[in-house]
Amino acid sequence: MSGILLQSKNISVLRKGTPPLAFPDIRVETMEKTLVLGPSGSGKTTLLSVLAGLLKPATGSVHFKGHDVYTLAPRARDHLRGENFGFVFQTLHLLPTLNLRQNIALAADMADMPRDEKRIDHLMTTLGLIGKAHRKPEALSQGEQQRAAIARAVLNRPKIIMTDEPTSALDDENAEIVLKLLHDQAKEAGAALLIATHDNRIIHHFKHVIRLEGRAREAA
Amino acid sequence: MNALSLAAASIKSRPLQASLCVLAAGAGFALLSCIFLLSGSIETSFMRNAEGIDVVIGAKGSPLQLVLSSVYHADVPTGNIEAEDYEKMKHNPKISQIIPLALGDNYHGFRIAGTTPDYPALYHATIRDGVMFSKPFDAVAGAFTELKVGDRFAGVHGLSADSDDVHNFHLYQITGTMKPTGTVLDRLILTSVESVQELHRHPDAGDPDAAEEQKIGHQVTALLVKVHSPIAIINLPREINKTSNLLAANPGYEMTRLSQSLGFGRDLLTALGAGFIALSALMLLSSLASSLSARRYDLGVLRVLGASPLTLSGTVIAEGMMLSAAGTIAGIAAGHMLAFCAASTIASLQGLVLPSEMLSLTQTDGLLLTVGLGTGLLAGAVPALSAARTDIAGILARGRA
Known about the structure:
The structure holds 2 protein chains of 2 kinds.
Chain A: E1 4-13, E2 21-22, E3 26-29, E4 33-37, H1 44-51, E5 59-64, E6 67-68, H2 74-84, E7 85-88, H3 100-110, H4 117-126, H5 142-154, E8 160-164, H6 172-189, E9 192-197, E10 208-211, E11 217-218
Parallel strand pairs in A: 4-9, 4-10, 7-8, 8-9
Antiparallel strand pairs in A: 1-2, 1-3, 1-5, 2-11, 5-6
Helix pairs in contact in A: 3-5, 5-6
Chain B: H1 3-12, H2 15-50, E1 55-59, H3 63-70, E2 81-82, H4 83-90, E3 95-107, E4 110-115, H5 118-122, E5 127-130, E6 138-141, E7 152-153, E8 156-157, E9 172-178, E10 188-192, H6 193-201, H7 210-216, E11 219-220, E12 222-227, H8 230-243, E13 246-249, H9 251-304, H10 309-345, H11 363-388, H12 392-398
Parallel strand pairs in B: 4-10, 6-9
Antiparallel strand pairs in B: 1-12, 1-13, 2-11, 3-4, 3-8, 3-12, 5-9, 6-10, 7-9
Helix pairs in contact in B: 1-10, 2-9, 2-10, 2-11, 9-10, 9-11, 9-12, 10-11
């Protein structure tokens, strides 16, 4: 089942105190695995924010499943993101005030979707988190926190999982483990996978690679 | 998880800061609640006790003292007046009802008032057990005196419980007890004027005040007067004060003057309570602002997961309102308890304020709760606005601080 899931054209972003950033056009097919590769400061996180409907670009457009994301009403855009996008951030981003299970369930709660407790149990079992449901993030290891973040990202069976530098801070062995986990979970959820990173070690896992140059390109 | 449970989780994660906010709000609302309860109850009691009494007539002295001693039984009388003056006043055309009071004795601190059955009728008092006094030395006991029908006791001269000048000539006998009225009646023992006079006409042998007491045997302490027309409320005291050696005072006027004098203290305490609440609002604002700055990253995550800016604002506002509601409710409860303790233990409040009334919810509690929630809403509004405007992309790019 293929088709264009996410597409951006002529995106540029204005950031205070820096020249406008222009990004290459992006096209992600359903269930496709895409790598956005670029050095630090090249605008990878900014690009993910634009693609996810979190930062309106100064120029250009973003289409998700045929919808122009930035012509949608803000609430509709929030819904679209909550239901269709899963995120794994660079610094994990589990809420310290909530326990592990609540952190995973947040994905459904914030997207106004019914909580599927069985799926939460399944994910926790699959990711080796069962028995730690009531622990706060501070009581979990880095690896457990990362797996919890992945569980939250895939809970709603999103159409695309976006991750930002998931392997940069890991050694080769753990980088491979996390990458396999992301691949497996994306496959199970039927989601495309878009990884933004400066980590060249994982490039061989992807056929579709988009490169960002330096501090991106100065917009014409 | 919704805005409420996220707010609750945030509060739970900062127990010390949250407790301080609740404590500050609680202190302010406890003080205000206690002041409003006591002052409201005292004012009601003042009105209730002076109901149906237009003018008080007694011996020359301070008009306020006369009113306090004969209407509220809260001060020593200005002196006594002759029984002939009472007889003369009965025929004054401006007067529609006149109730005599013969004071000067007590039993265990409860004042014995010689009067007529019109006096309890003034307060709509009803008999709980037994019957109203009818013969000399019959007595009817107020609800707080703990006397029972059939009890016999000797009156003690003076208004203090520790006086040792016991009137042994004749014992009183309780013929009836009254239901609580929420008025001074609850702390009085009523008998006929003749009983009090008769007792004083027979002082104990060797009593150094025998001559003085025998004089009392032909006197009354005060007259509670109801007049025929409203204009007489002003004219009658003027006429009596000008043309006789008696003192006539208007209870309403005297109590207004007293209330104005006491009002300063009440206003000061009210201002103090309001100051506490303002301080708690600032603490709440500062707590929410610092919590917001620490949680900005978390709020960004919630937005990424699909939460609307409204949900983020709602979380912050819910946190402010939960803290201020907790403080307000705890404060109101503490205020009721403080007022109850004050009404139960402070002697000058007894007979003015019913302790049990201090435990009932009032309209003022609703008003205080509204003010408390409003304070939480106001304190949360600025941080909530800031939360709604969270620059998610910027936060995600910067990472958790």
